[in-house]
Amino acid sequence: MAHHLLIQLSDVHLTRAGELAPGVDPAANLASALALMEDEGLAPDVVLVTGDLANEGDEPSYRDLAAALSASRALMGATILYVPGNHDRRGPFRTVLLGGAPDGGPINQVVWHGGLRLVALDSTVPGEDHGHLDDETIAFLADALADPAPEGSIVVLHHPPQPSPIAAMAALRLANADGLARAIEGTDVRAVVCGHYHHAGASRLGAVPVWTGPATSFVADAAHTGEIRLLRGGAMTRIDVDDEGVVASVIPVGAGRHGVGGRHRRGESAVRPARGAGRPRGYSGSWTTGTTRSSSRSGSTRWSPCA
Ligand SMILES: [Fe+2]
């Protein structure tokens, strides 16, 4: 079995308005991710862009995203798989990113890399933030998986089937996880890959592992479960697929990437943290549908949800 390198860029939240909050710059974080891939020679076979691509679901932001990815030397030759999230709008998404007519039906896709099959599902509910797979999408999935792929399948969607420890996020999960579980049971699906929560997480749906990738744009602090506290920084995921399995590894980007400038040697501390280091500096917020609701600066900024 061949080795396949997938890079997951999730919840990019591009906006033409600039920063989403002080120090939260989605475009800069995306640029950081692309530059990092180029600098490190990370040349993905497939890029999974797993939802909330544009904060406002607008055509100009989709064009900016497509331009940034197509200009990246690291992505030359890579297959880009755009998957919609709750911030995206199907019409502009189809028109700009998929070159199709702007109809409002679910955006379900199958792409291949060698013998590996990737099935991308539209889990969005127009006008809502939670996820749901409608009958058409479940039927699409069943049809796509009807025959085993030579190297198995990976299912990709925005909304995770498992809850987040952050209650407001958990309320926005995939509502019919049981339908997804039934559709993949007994098939060749090797993993389910999601985004949406803005924090990394691993779980299982039946016998199939589920990876929830972090966002490139900002972090939702899983240590703070009462409300959604946003932290600066972001991350992408590299997913290595071969005959040993499917391995997801998080790579910080943008403000989340702070090197220590040295090599760690056994028996000595490479980094001496400053007083207070390790305490999150970020934003706390309540989460509502759609876009940024308010912001204030008192050590934290309140945000509306985009999960
Ligand atoms: Fe998001």
Write the layout of secondary structure elements.
Blueprint: E1 4-9, H1 26-40, E2 46-50, H2 59-71, E3 79-83, H3 90-98, E4 109-113, E5 116-120, H4 135-144, E6 153-156, H5 167-170, H6 177-184, E7 189-194, E8 201-205, E9 208-212, E10 219-220, E11 228-231, E12 234-242, E13 245-253, E14 282-285
Helix pairs in contact: 2-3
Beta-strand segment tally = 14
Low-confidence segments, given as residue ranges, are 268-307
What helical percentage do the residues reach?
10-25%
Main β sheet profile: 6 strands, mixed
Radius of gyration: 19 Å
Structure description:
- By secondary structure, the protein is an alpha/beta fold.
- It has one domain (4-257, 277-285): Purple Acid Phosphatase, chain A, domain 2.
- Helix content is 19%, strand content 24%.
- It is built from 6 helices and 14 strands.
- It has a 6-stranded mixed β-sheet with strand order 4-5-6-7-9-8, with helices on one face. A 5-stranded mixed β-sheet has the order 3-2-1-12-13. A 3-stranded antiparallel β-sheet has the order 10-11-14.
- Strand 12 (234-242) and strand 13 (245-253) form a beta hairpin.
- The longest helix is centred in the N-terminal third of the chain and has 15 residues, at 26-40.
- The relative contact order is 0.17.
- The model is unreliable at 268-307 (pLDDT under 50).
Provide a short characterization of the protein structure:
With 307 residues, the chain is of the alpha/beta class.
Task: Give descriptors for this structure.
307 residues, alpha/beta, Purple Acid Phosphatase, chain A, domain 2, 6-stranded mixed sheet, 5-stranded mixed sheet, 14 strands, 24% strand, disordered C terminus, binds fe (ii) ion
